[in-house]
Amino acid sequence: MNSLKHFAAAAVLALAASVGHAQMDSVDESPSAAAMAFDFVVVRPLGLVATVGGIALFIAQLPFALIQGEPPSEPAQRFVVEPAAYTFTRPLGELE
């Protein structure tokens, strides 16, 4: 009788876990309209400002990097490419 209770409890837990997993598969993870509007009105213009500022910083540090003999690829990546990619290639509403 005791083993029957354990079997029934295990069966209930297994069914509950499978139902919970099935519900998680149907979750809509697309961004909301509010997130898309916030991204378009606030975050994208700030990203554009960051890109232009990064270009200015890259140009300002470029002579020093060349004097030291370091390749400018790392500062270019940090100052220009990453802000530009965040601003222009990221899907609208995805802020991560």
Tell me what the structure shows:
Keywords: Membrane, Signal, Transmembrane, Transmembrane helix. The protein has 96 residues and is mostly helical. It has a domain at 31-96. Helices cover 79% and strands 0% of the residues. 3% of the residues are buried.
What is the compact description of this entry?
The protein is mainly alpha-helical. Helix content is 79%, strand content 0%. The protein is built from 3 helices and no strands.
Q: Fraction of residues in helices?
A: over 70%
Order of helices and strands: HHH
Q: Ranges with pLDDT <50 over ≥5 residues?
A: none
Q: How is the biggest beta sheet arranged?
A: none
* Number of helices, counting only DSSP H or I runs of 4 residues or more: 3
Q: What is the SS-derived class?
A: mainly alpha
Mean pLDDT over the residues: 84
Strand content: under 5%
Which of globular, elongated, flat, extended, rod-shaped describes the shape?
Answer: elongated
Strand elements, count: 0
CA radius of gyration: 26 Å
Give the termini distance in whole angstroms.
53 Å
